[in-house]
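Protocol step 4 of 5: obtain the predicted structure for the target chain.
Materials: sequence only (see below). No template structures provided, no constraints applied. The aim of this step is simply to have a reference model before the mutagenesis design in step 5. Sequence pasted as it appears in the construct record:
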Amino acid sequence: MKSLIFKCTVCGNYTLESKCPKCGSSTISTIPPRFSPQDKYGKYRMKMLYGKE
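Step 4 output (structure tokens):
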């Protein structure tokens, strides 16, 4: 299922469009990535978030 709401990468405005109507830059989906126990990069994300191993 695709996200119906997007967030602008520049101004932080929320919209339903793929381009921001306020500043014209691209938008990103607001839904976080799906969790998987076989995640290859989970270790590195946790390191970035918490700063420890």
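Step 4 remarks: The mean pLDDT is 83. The radius of gyration is 15 Å.
Proceed to step 5.
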